């Protein structure tokens, strides 16, 4: 960003204003009016716009994939607010890359519409039923797939799932809307489509398939069989650190001379590794940096356990110690040491190398990415929804460690810190506002666990058999006692000594 750009009168982002944007800002070189849709993406948050939408935009810049434009969709109240902001600026997004040494701004134009957000999902079902839509993609967070965390099985008893199974034509979930549309596509001969998860889940395509087929089977077993047989669900690994947008990010866009109601900032790193399993065609994302491979699982394990797991390792103690950001956590000598020691000693031994990257090199890469001072990623955002993230990001490493006779003391410390965090106060006495869909339940158990740590481990839906593993449960009880008695920093220092 230059001083000249900063002083330029800001242009309200829209198709009409693209030509008037300040110099130095990349913008669509393709004719957006000539784009036609091929993808519906449900969950149009910051990550989608900085990652999947960006890859497609870059492909369009090469003169390709103009029949694969994105239509946004959502099923929550927050999605309706995002829809209003994006439609007001022709679904354009300013995406600002924050390298420690520089910044770069780009306007992404691969999304062309955003469907109305409705209780019965009528518009979403109708759109997904159209022949030109060949991919439905999803970013709904790790906990949004109606999966029991302990068993990994589809939670068919959830109230939302029960509602959709009893009201298949007017569903309330994204999955119910997709099932309803697939019923129309089957009955009218339009045919199947690809359902593509873009969330941080191991075997995310398999999880998507389990939920979709499981829901369909509750109301229409023959449709479930058709979906299972005809549709495709590619597994993928997605990676880019993308903070939430607040006043700081809005000001960054203004500094570039852009009036954008929903700008996105991200680090100077992206990765997208995809299984090439698309029943109705796909864009050639590999021409702009994505990688198609049959080794997705190994990439998933490395990223989810070291990056996503590492995020939990540092954000939970960061919350307790009133460290506001992830880069701030990495500047804290105790928290950063905790990350490196746990990653090297307790996570990496259970992670395979992937082409051009060993676990040790990946730890160094993540350490650098977490330390980027320009990325204002809050500990609160990263620590959100621990009841979904810990089972997916931390507990698999604990299970592997126990099975192989390796230490899990550091990971037990992280779980103890999470239990202490859910008590709802930081060590300086300030209040931690509810930060999990199950916060009230977690807080009640966390306060009881101060006297009886096994109360916390008794959450079978999270810990399952781990509560009976003394290698973990004894260490958890020890660290929880230390944290309550001596503080989080003392516990970290004792572990790292």
Distance between the termini: 44 Å
CATH structural architecture of the largest domain: 3-Layer(aba) Sandwich
The CATH homologous superfamily name of the largest domain equals: NAD(P)-binding Rossmann-like Domain
Radius of gyration equals 23 Å
CATH fold type of the largest domain:
Rossmann fold
Helices, by number, come to 23
> Approximately how much beta-strand content do the residues carry?
5-15%
**What is the total number of structural domains?**
2
Q: What does the overall shape look like? A: globular
The tally of beta strands, per DSSP, is: 13
Structural class: alpha/beta
Low-pLDDT segments, ≥5 res: 1-8
Describe the structure.
There is one protein chain. The protein has 23 helices and 13 strands. With 497 residues, the chain is of the alpha/beta class. It has 2 domains: 290 residues, Rossmann fold; 201 residues, Orthogonal Bundle (N-(1-d-carboxylethyl)-l-norvaline Dehydrogenase, domain 2), CATH 1.10.1040. It has a 5-stranded parallel β-sheet, sandwiched between helices. Helix 18 crosses helix 22 and helix 18 packs antiparallel against helix 23. The longest helix is centred in the middle third of the chain and has 25 residues. The radius of gyration is 23 Å and the shape is globular. 49% of the residues are buried. The N terminus is likely disordered.
